[in-house]
Fold:
Amino acid sequence: MIIAVDGPAASGKGTIARALARHYKLPHLDTGLLYRAVGLTVIDKGGDPADAAAAIGACGFPDAMLDDPRLKGDAAGNAASVVSAIPAVREALLERQRRFAAQPGGAVLDGRDIGTVIAPEADAKLFVRATSAIRARRRHDELVKAGSTLSYDRVLADIKARDLRDSTRGAAPLRQANDAALLDTSYMSVETAIAHAIELVEAQRARSIPPA
Ligand code: C5P
Structure:
């Protein structure tokens, strides 16, 4: 079974995807990490993430880069959102994601375009969202715990800028697939959101299994 989980930054999609992977005993890929690795590689080399040649050159990053703790930081996130708007970067990362999705037994992938571009054939698709104020509050709490001194207002502004870039770019913009179930986690605890996600996946699975 392939499960596609899409949604904007800090919507809860990563937590939900990891929980679904545990529940269904499937491997999980956080596809945002691939774009973050490209963005961070460009920055490390002193380049500009908006420079297409530099970003394309960074797509061959080594697998070990995916374990770099700096990938979780805001600098990598913002650079990822810039490089991900470059069509050739998306193209260069496509095969790797499709191979992961196509492995025997299936997989859970989370990102922005899993249900629309990477795995349109997915057996279950969720689109996870929450208000920008609530997403900024969650991200700010995480950053403060990690020792960051960024203000809430700055985090909210970053989230809004990323939403705008991700949803207005020409290449694979962030949008809910027509056949994806919507899950708004704004006023849900993590446990409730996970329970709803499992129910939605079960409902989609039941629909796709032809009656005996
Ligand atoms: O999900 P995460 O915040 O780690 O993603 C970082 C950035 O990578 C996003 O803002 C988005 O621009 C980009 N991304 C994407 N397509 C994906 C996953 C992430 O464009 N499938």
Notes: DSSP finds nine helices and five strands in the chain. Residues 9, 31-32, 35-36, 77, 80-81, 84, 111-113, 162, 166 surround cytidine-5'-monophosphate (CB under 6 Å). The first strand starts at residue 2 and ends at 6.
